[in-house]
Amino acid sequence: MTEIIDGESVAADVRDAVADEVSRLSDAGVGPGLATVLMSDDAASETYVSMKQRDCEEVGIESFHVEIDAGAPASELYETIDDLNGRDDVHGILVQLPLPDHVDKRTVLRRIAPEKDVDGFHPENVGRLVAGDARFKPCTPHGVQKLLDAYDVETEGADAVVVGRSDIVGKPMANLLIQKSPTGNATTTVCHSRTEDLEAKLAGADIVVAAAGIPEFVDGSTLKSGATVIDVGINRVDADTEKGYELVGDVDYESAKDVAGAITPVPGGVGPMTRAMLLYNTVKAAGLQRDVAVDL
Ligand code: NDP
């Protein structure tokens, strides 16, 4: 029987643990706060930001929101970040990506104070992750790690294949999988658009993390029987639904679910975990900044 990995349920557990820590921190005089910054007219980005605000509310994290006109000069965003960096009530700063073309993403990510970089994208935090001394693990791969742990998926000695090498998913995911730790110790292959014979790599994988951004890209016929399949992809495809589209992952769920030993659905797999881990990082950030131990 294939096990369906329930991201909603594991994310709910993470949120409960976060809510407990928020109330403990609040008793100690620390009210964790997250600032979201939106510089885009993109409807999906607006939705993501409002979901993050709602998530904060649910666990008792104070949320602050700044909207900057998409056509404004980059300096306006820099000034906003500088202001948020200096505020005592803001412990985490999240600049929603993507940014307009005239704004350099790398410059923006470097501007965020590393101790408030709850996305984990600042070079200092990337370096710490690679060195096995993570301050904030990026939310999506951290969420995947939590799912694997929650479902007792053995990573030690496993052959893992990560499909995708982006800075926000593929690379940090691979880094977590190779860490010398009980939730790492996997032999990890990172695949990308120039990989030759992806199918041969998939065929040998005990764990597959699919993050290619291509709808239903990984077919069940390419998977090893019993593999754990983590589908990070979120793709909108046209469909005869009320909204005119449906969400599918990077794995062809129908063909994969009978071959896999365990699999995440889309939606309801990795997505809720990404959201929960942002709350986790915000509480961790508040504890670190105010020198109060956080038990997460
Ligand atoms: P990117 O587009 O930044 O990266 C995609 C990666 O896939 C690239 O490294 C690319 O290779 C690789 N790729 C493309 N084509 C192929 C191919 N034919 N064979 C093998 N590899 C290929 O995407 P992201 O990492 O940002 O996101 C990946 C997916 O995850 C998307 O569907 C996104 O929506 C989703 N996502 C979901 C989240 C969640 O919470 N569930 C959070 C973040 C993202 P190359 O580098 O050579 O171009």
Fold and architecture overview:
Residues 5-119 form the Tetrahydrofolate dehydrogenase/cyclohydrolase catalytic domain. It catalyses: (6R)-5,10-methenyltetrahydrofolate + H2O = (6R)-10-formyltetrahydrofolate + H(+); (6R)-5,10-methylene-5,6,7,8-tetrahydrofolate + NADP(+) = (6R)-5,10-methenyltetrahydrofolate + NADPH. Belongs to the tetrahydrofolate dehydrogenase/cyclohydrolase family. InterPro entries: Aminoacid_DH-like_N_sf, NAD(P)-bd_dom_sf, THF_DH/CycHdrlase, THF_DH/CycHdrlase_cat_dom, THF_DH/CycHdrlase_NAD-bd_dom. Catalyzes the oxidation of 5,10-methylenetetrahydrofolate to 5,10-methenyltetrahydrofolate and then the hydrolysis of 5,10-methenyltetrahydrofolate to 10-formyltetrahydrofolate. The protein is α/β, with parallel strands linked by helices and 296 residues long. It has two domains: 30-116, Rossmann fold (3-Layer(aba) Sandwich), CATH 3.40.50; 139-272, Rossmann fold. It is 40% helix and 16% strand. The protein has ten helices and eleven strands. The strands form three sheets. Strands 1-11-8-7-5-6 form a six-stranded parallel β-sheet. A three-stranded parallel β-sheet has the order 3-2-4, sandwiched between helices. A two-stranded antiparallel sheet has the order 9-10. β2 (33-38), α2 (43-59) and β3 form a beta-alpha-beta unit. α6 (139-150) crosses α10 (270-290). The protein is globular. The mean pLDDT is 97. NADPH dihydro-nicotinamide-adenine-dinucleotide phosphate binds next to α10.
